[in-house]
Amino acid sequence: MSDSLMGKGLRSLMRNLRKVSRGRLSQDTRSRAGNTEKPRSEATKVRSPLSKPPRPNTEKPRSEATKRRGINEQPPPSQVTSSSHLIGDLKSDLNLFRALLGHSRDAAFREIRLGSKGQLPAALVYLEDMASKPVQIQTILRPLLLESRMIPLGNEIAGKDAVDVIQDAILPAGDVKRMDDVNLIVLSVLAGDTALLIHGSAQALVVNTRGWNMRQVSEPDNELVIRGPREGFTENLRNNVALIRSRLKSPDLEVRYRRLGFITHTDVAVVFINGIADPEIVDEVMNRIDVIQIDGVLEGSYLEEFIEDNPYSPFPQIEHTERPDKVVASLLEGRIAIMTDGTPFAMVVPTVFGQYLQSGDDYYQRYHVATFIRLLRLLSMFVSLILPGAYLAIVTTHPEMVPTTLLVSIAAQREGVPFPAIIEALLMEGTIEILRESGLRMPGRIGQAISVVGAIVLGQAAVSAGLVSPAMVMIVSLTGLASFAIPSFAIAIPLRLLRFGLMVVGSIFGIFGIMAIFMVVVAHLASLRSFGVPYMEPIFPFRAADLKDFILRAPWWAMTERPRSTHPIKLTRRTEEVRKVPSGNQQRRTTATSGKRGATKQ
Question: For residues 327 and 346, is the Cβ–Cβ distance under 8 A?
């Protein structure tokens, strides 16, 4: 009995030893084969026993860009590297463009056959919504499908030679470019061009067929003139450059293009006149534009915040305009224009403070009238900036400066007003600003009616209710009218902001506080630069020669020099001096004009 029990124990012991040896052997085998299991995160290690183990990852390794886009998405055109080139096989090249543009429903891929027997395959790639169909038919399809039948293509002339023949002898379009970079071809197609791919050629012909709907040239609403041109810029960059060239027919006019925005690929044009504009300022403008890194550029203000000298100042350091004649006049003075595709506003640099008080009317009217109007604008600027603060300073801090009769009248008007003078002024100014902003955001005619009627009704109601005094209503009204006399909206906004600060300081510290703030503002203006040019020139630093076209407007025959603030290469406007003819019946003539008349007679 004991022997049988001992035998059973030995057998069970042997079985356990075999199990242990097998487990160790399998573990050793696994360790020798290498552990291919990826290290688990802490969250996986503490997984509950009831959770299912993670399934092994059988996907192929993907790049970071593919992981962000998703496995089924095609890379956008902006991510095509510059090393992607056409290979010359039409089917492979078309598959590449379909992969890049196939997600756009308006992308068209039309395959055609060229040659006398149609033996040369080709294809057109374009966007239906961006390309002009009449232009395509007249300049591409009709010549390719008809005239190519009379020229041996294919077996006789193939590859690069076929591209030469098509560009030189078949396509009548003037703007035809050769490209082999897929990235550049895609960007051209997205801009409205049509790409012609030819089998056997690693180059594509890109034809300008841009013809999307755009706004027609019209008079700008923000810069109205009584006498002068009625044309304004549009949102199309090519049209804007053409408007400048139509007024400035000179071979010295240079236009440099840049493309900004990693996603939008917006075209930017820098326009200046060679021989007049300072090359150092031109290089500075180009350098500041070239270093801009941004996803998209939708308006010129995107660039303005990158290239201005002092971005923390509330005062504008770059002038904006919608008028081609104003841009041409600035170019003739040695300035530089920066134009962005998609906006009707052009930026002009360098800029001085006096430009914001000038208008196109100043140069189309008699210089006597223009000088008077400029002085009136200067007075309006000071009134809109200082009048409310000066009124509060006199009423609250310096009542002895007011005549007794007027002081008694003001005190009688404010007898029933429950608020202090500063609260009364801020309430009225805030109401005017709200009315101004609501009038701008509403449709034109309705906005004007709301601005005028709302100001009258609210002012009368406030006086009747005893919330404000009639004198404060008159002060605020004069301030608003004076601010509307400033021709530039860009300079009127910081003046409106300073007005509130002067009101608060004037009610607390009086005239001394206003003068202190005014001196700080003047010192700040004197410290500003616009591409290295002093902002307050020709006042700081003082240049007497440039005062002819600063506050005053001298006659054209007296302004023989360009402004020195722009550092022009050619300072004089004319090569001959203007002289007076002694006879009183004859008009003023110049030797240059006399020479032209003599040449015309010959």
Answer: yes
Residue range 199-244, pLDDT digits in tens: 888 999 999 998 877 788 888 888 888 888 989 999 999 899 999 9
Work out whether strand 578-579 and strand 533-534 pair parallel, antiparallel, or are unpaired. unpaired
pLDDT digits (tens, 9 = 90+) for 363-402: 998 999 999 999 999 999 999 999 999 999 998 888 888 8
Between CA 573 and CA 280 the distance in angstroms is: 21
What does pTM read for this prediction?
Answer: 0.76
CA 550, 553, 556, 560 dihedral sign is negative
Q: Is the dihedral of CA 552, 556, 559, 561 positive or negative?
A: positive
DSSP 55: P
Summarised one tens digit per residue, pLDDT across range 308-360 is: 999 999 999 999 999 999 999 999 999 999 999 999 999 999 999 999 999 88
d(CA 571, CA 474): 48
Contact in structure between 475 and 387 (CB atoms under 8 Å): yes
Which of these, 575, 577, 564, 576, lies nearest to 333 by C-alpha position? 564
Is the torsion defined by CA of 580, 581, 583, 587 positive or negative? negative
d(CA 259, CA 239): 17
CA 562, CA 572: separation in Å to the nearest integer?
6
Contact 413, 425 (CB under 8 A): no
Q: Which amino acid is at 87?
A: I
